[in-house]
Amino acid sequence: MAILPSTTAEGGTVDVVEGCRLPVLRKNQENEDEWPLAEILSVKEIPGRKLYYVHYIDFNKRLDEWVTPDRLDMKKLQFPKKEAKTPTKNGLPGSRPSSPESEVRKSLDLNLQTATAPSRGKTLPTPKRKAESVSLATQVSPATPVPSLPGLAEASQASVYPAVRDTNTFNLKSNARDDHEQLTSLTTNGTARRPMPNQPGRKRKQPPNCGGTDEIIKVFQYNNSPRCANVYLQPGEDSQDSSDGIPSTPRMTGSLVSDRSHDDIVTRMKNIDCIELGRHRLKPWYFSPYPQELTTLPILYLCEFCLKYLKSLKCLQRHLTKCNLRHPPGNEIYRKGTISFFEIDGRKNKTYSQNLCLLAKCFLDHKTLYYDTDPFLFYVMTEYDSKGFHIVGYFSKEKESTEDYNVACILTLPPYQRRGYGKLLIEFSYELSKVEGKTGTPEKPLSDLGLLSYRSYWSQTILEILMDLKPDNGERPQITINDISEITSVKKEDVISTLQYLNLINYYKGQYILTLSEDIVEGHERAMQKRHLRIDSKCLHFTPKDWSKRGKW
């Protein structure tokens, strides 16, 4: 590790090493000065000065940057702790102790197994991975017990709840047994918690026992948001994501989830300064494994049609005279106006798929890059003009997914973000699931921007269905969770978590109800007015394949 001297404001000299922490000056979103704590990942010397590559603690990695010494607060310099020598076990060298991360995982897995076993009535095997944090759920008070949904044999046809308003009131049925598997008490960090016992002297009314098959959940609109009993998702036994969003082990299928346990200083640092793609210049956010000789260039040039990377503008111009592509390779399966989607087989168009993954890795931190793209399909969204079809974004999916994933990676390129293209990509992925006759969910963990986009899409899609329900013969219309899932192709767990995120689920007089406040209705209407880009299913020409037959690969 290189040790470099640095001069403090008092004139003293200290040695700055990689791993030191200290406050660093940066501008916040309001363009005001702030001094967040940062870690020095690398130090380099250029003629006349020194530069430090810093990672701001508790900030997204895309904000990492090279800074000059004048932005460092040397008075609060924290040196890295010395690493202890590897202890031996039973006097034998080479036996390493378990890492703190693995010990935490073991503890969380044990807590999950212990907490969920009594509710199932049997001992559960330790899952391969723990579920991702239930970030879609709202906070719950640990002292408030949450009633469980009644089982299939315990569900009842609820009595008619007195109308609060004369308009926009309707019922929502829920397949109680199915939903019961998904609704339980869960802390927001993903670890299961047993329901708190009732306080002495208090009796909580339990749902009545009856032989019905559905529990009717009333849906009303209130002038003000009503009080609500929150319920939380139980982590699935076969879920393969850890509670902190970090996979405990890499999946052996075609997953692109990153195994973060092998991160090092090299992959934590951005290695490309700038990318020129067509008429846009992009500043990468994260590391991408482009060839080492290209990382020292001030600008990396890409052909916007075949995505081949070149080292100079002259090489790009020469390449364009020979490149015949004016659109992504593969089949155009959707076109409406200037928007088109191309389906690309990762086996038939391997070079393009690998180049696409290299570009996408510059803006995706939670995914890794496998050069074996055979198990994947890539759906590239383009915008057409007189020069050709220009890439806007893409998503990939496994040809065969045992976890019902309909998206592996999804990305809208930065020049096209905040213009509705992200939701269009998500809507298109679910449109494909509808044609396939399946429900789907994105592969976890999602990036911060991806999670926001999916939250917004799920909320708008579900609220759109609830708002469009009409009374039936004077009765309030009824719909089940499964009906919503089948209509939208959104997986049932995502439907339930979205209702929780919107804080719509309430428990009243022995039954679950959904309440739509005026604020939610008005906010939904405003959001839908701004959403101009939508997928037209009539413009989709797509025939799903049975990828279980290897001959189709």
UniProtKB/TrEMBL annotation:
Highest taxon of source: Eukaryota
GO MF annotation terms: chromatin binding; histone H4K16 acetyltransferase activity; zinc ion binding
UniProt entry tagged with the keyword Glycoprotein: no
Top EC group: transferase
One Pfam family per UniProt: zf-MYST
Family: Belongs to the MYST (SAS/MOZ) family.
Protein name per its UniProtKB record: Histone acetyltransferase KAT5
Organism: Oncorhynchus mykiss (Rainbow trout)
